[in-house]
Amino acid sequence: MTLTNYLVLSGILFSIGAATVLLRRNAIIVFMGVELMLNATNLALVTFSRLHGDLTGQVMAFFVMVVAAAEVVVGLAIIVSIFRTRKSASVDDINLLKS
Amino acid sequence: MTPSTAETVLFWVLAPVMVLAASGLLLTRKAVHAALCVITVMISLAFLYVAQEAPFLGVVQVVVYTGAVMMLFLFVLMLVGVDASDSLVETLRGQRWVGWLGALGLGVVLVGVVGRATYPSAVGLAEANAPGNPTGVARIIFGQHVFGLEVVGALLVTAALGALVLTHRQRLTRVVKQPERAAARVAAGARLTPLPAPGVYARHNAMDVPALDPAGNPIDESVPRVLRIRGQEAGTAEYRADTYRRAVTAVLAERGAVGDGEVDAALGAVADEPRPAAAPPGTTTGPTADIDLGGGSTRTETER
């Protein structure tokens, strides 16, 4: 086994996350797909850090984690406020500007 | 530098689990199951980080992602409703197929490019991790990226404030406190005491069996409203005061009348009587006064 396996795994996880974002309608599950994509990039960053013998990749992964935590807080707050006004967590129902 | 055998085994155990759990996120119907699948992926990723000489990130992964982010997701799931499922209506025509195709194409491109690229020989982190992995990471964060860290701190504060502002709800009406509710209930003349519990004095104490009043008649409001609306209330005739009927039969038998007709007549007379309202203590009211149940006969009846 080489470090390429980790990168391939990261690519697979990223595309599954992208598929979740494209295919699911529940806003919370879509959001979990985004989280999965972020995690997959973190795995790639950690693997590259090891490949190059440089800890900067791990630092980047750390920053990604922190920003993802902030993003989750705001995103979930938006979902909650949309749910309060629309009584639905489906991304299809948020077409207020239509019609 | 090549990964050790133990790491290879760990990878080949965890990688299928992670891909399966990620597919679970894509395919499960319930949002809670999807959240559990994502938690599985994240914990497995923490294992992989530790195996890849990044123990600090492994711990942060568990603490931040599984501990904070996914718990936040579960809280919001409970808030929004766990049964919020996907709609099957397609608002954009053919979006499902395009989505599948796009995701598949992305996967093929990513895996193809990443898998076929030639990489320099892996260096490994033994040298960089010499003072300890957290120490090495801290030197870079607080050395080269100190400004970035400050910006991230400001971002976190902004995010927390933003969440507060987004979920804030202004109160439109006055708060109604408990004394006011009580006063309103008395003024409306509604029932002040608690409702009787279902099954009191009946032959069963299941939720759907109405309680019996002293005359043996079922009290409808003792059964929960939901069951009554659904029509799941147990048949009242079945649970009428059976012991009472047997006692009446015994009394009538002592008097010499044993036919069913007489018993029914006596019970009917009881049931037809208007229910006595609040009786002053000490006076015997109700049907028990009319049908003279001899003490001895009831006791023998219950002992039988």
Automatic annotation (TrEMBL), chain A:
One of its GO terms (biological process) is ATP synthesis coupled electron transport. The chain crosses the membrane at residues 6-23, 60-83. Its main location: membrane. It catalyses: a quinone + NADH + 5 H(+)(in) = a quinol + NAD(+) + 4 H(+)(out). GO terms for molecular function: NADH dehydrogenase (quinone) (non-electrogenic) activity; quinone binding. It is a multi-pass membrane protein. The keyword Transmembrane applies. Keywords: Cell membrane, Membrane, NAD, Quinone, Translocase, Transmembrane, Transmembrane helix, Transport. It is found in: Cell membrane; Membrane. Gene3D superfamilies: 1.10.287.3510. One of its GO terms (cellular component) is NADH dehydrogenase complex. Its EC number is 7.1.1.-. NCBIfam families: PRK05715.1-2, PRK05715.1-3, PRK05715.1-5. NDH-1 shuttles electrons from NADH, via FMN and iron-sulfur (Fe-S) centers, to quinones in the respiratory chain. The immediate electron acceptor for the enzyme in this species is believed to be a menaquinone. Couples the redox reaction to proton translocation (for every two electrons transferred, four hydrogen ions are translocated across the cytoplasmic membrane), and thus conserves the redox energy in a proton gradient. NDH-1 is composed of 14 different subunits. Subunits NuoA, H, J, K, L, M, N constitute the membrane sector of the complex. Belongs to the complex I subunit 4L family. This is NADH-quinone oxidoreductase subunit K.
UniProtKB/TrEMBL annotation, chain B:
This is NADH-quinone oxidoreductase subunit J. It holds the Pfam family Oxidored_q3. The keyword Protein transport does not apply. Residues 269-304 are annotated as: Disordered. One of its GO terms (molecular function) is NADH dehydrogenase (ubiquinone) activity. The lineage of its organism: Bacteria, Bacillati, Actinomycetota, Actinomycetes, Micrococcales. Belongs to the complex I subunit 6 family. It is found in: Cell membrane. Residues 280-289 have a biased composition (Low complexity).
